[in-house]
Structures are given as structure tokens and as C-alpha cells.
Amino acid sequence: MIPDTIIYIPNFISQEEEQKLIDHVYSAPKPKWTHLSNRRLQNWGGLPHPKGMVAEDIPQWLDLYCDKIGKLDLFEGKKPNHVLVNEYSPGQGIMPHEDGPLFYPTVTTISLGSSTVLDFYTHINQGKAEDKSEPCSENMSKKFEDRHVCSVYLEPRSLVIVKDDMYTKYLHGIKEQTEDMVDDRICNIKQCSDINIDNIKTRQTRISLTIRLVPKVLKTKLFFGKK
Ligand SMILES: O=C(O)CCC(=O)C(=O)O
Ligand SMILES: [Fe+2]
């Protein structure tokens, strides 16, 4: 069963919209890409900062989707103002992590070009969510596999919304592998159109658009002049 703090919407965008978005991502100026060891990314909207983000205009081709997601009313009436574009080649992924306090605790992600599997894990010092009665175990396993809670299969063109507990209490990540096995740890099989238990799905290059709200924004740019 899919936890109620994860909402999965298949076919949130059309194939035509998907292709247009991919084309725009690859037409962005080269310096817009940040290269990491296991993926590359584009940051749009400004750099989130504890003191506030200096907001930058989001190009129209992405802003369209900030509007569309804003209309789902997930951010207390506000429109998301930040988009992170991640590109993963087959075999690439993202280490289990949390998105942290600079974002409103609801994250929305559109997938383009390939499916993948997003895995959720408990923190090391937290008991499994299902057995809250259990005191936090001091010998909780350090291994991610032992702390796995659920996984969500992300089809191209889908939107996944992760909020509240799922955002704040758990880590999420994508394994560095070239194919995904469909098993009963995937909690949204019923909402996917072409997967069945025991299928092995080969990954293609996937682009994700992670659309979020940075609540703290600086109204004007800061100028650092000489005194
Ligand atoms: O690519 C994804 O679906 C997840 C990206 C992510 O977790 C992040 O950028 O914080
Ligand atoms: Fe994340």
C-alpha cells in the first residue's frame, strides 16, 4: 500500500510536453550544468540559502509547470519557485538523503525519458515507522537495505508528490544500477500501466524536474559595495 504522504500521478504530462521539456533541458547554456560524480544537474530559481534565496526568474518553459503544480494547492496557496533538473544515465543515482529545511516540506517531481525507482529509508536512529511502539533501537542496522521502508516506481511523464512525514522523517534515494526489479517492495504497482511483479525494467537516461517552494526569499538582491 502506498503511504498517504506519497501521491503518485501517472501521465501528469503528455508525450509531446515530455519531449518539449527534454529539448529545453538540452538547449540550456552549457554553464547551466553542474557536474557531480554520479549525475549532472541544473538549478533554476536561485540558490536556496538559510538567510533567504535571491530569487531568479524561472524560464517560461519551466514556469508553466510551476503554475500547473501550484494549482494543485500543495504549498498553502503559494506557487513553487525552485526547480532542480537532474539527469541520470543508466547506472547513475542519488545517495539516500533528505531535502532539508530550506524547502517547504512537500516535494514534487516530474520524470522524463525513463522510469526509475525511488527508495525510502528510515534514519539510522529511528525505529521503523510501522512499529513506533518499539523504543529506538540502539543497534539499528547501519545498512540501507535493512532500513528500507517502501519504493515508488516512477514512470516517465508521472508526477510524484512526497510530503509531511515522508519528507521529514525518511531518507530517499535512487540506486546506482542499470535496471530495476519489480517486486512487492514497490508500493504503487497498481497505479502503473505496464509493470508486473518480477519484471526487470531497463533504465534509459532519465531527467527529473524536482519542483519545490523555497519559502524564505530575499526581496531584493544584496549589493556588497565598498563602505
Ligand atoms: O531525481 C529524483 O527523482 C530525485 C531527486 C532528489 O531527490 C533531489 O534532487 O533532491
Ligand atoms: Fe531529494
From TrEMBL:
Cofactor(s), by name: Fe(2+)
Signal peptide stretch: none
Pfam families xrefs: 2OG-FeII_Oxy_2
Main location as per UniProt: nucleus
Keywords: Dioxygenase, Iron, Metal-binding, Nucleus, Oxidoreductase
PROSITE patterns: FE2OG_OXY
Single Gene Ontology MF annotation: dioxygenase activity
Keyword Cytoplasm: no
Keyword hit for 4Fe-4S: no
Domain of life per record: Eukaryota
Subcellular location, record wording: Nucleus
Domain Fe2OG dioxygenase: 79-215
A Gene Ontology cellular-component term: nucleus
InterPro entries for the chain: AlkB-like (IPR027450), AlkB-like_sf (IPR037151), ALKBH6 (IPR032862), Oxoglu/Fe-dep_dioxygenase_dom (IPR005123)
Record-stated family: Belongs to the alkB family.
Name this polypeptide is given: Fe2OG dioxygenase domain-containing protein
UniProt source species: Lottia gigantea
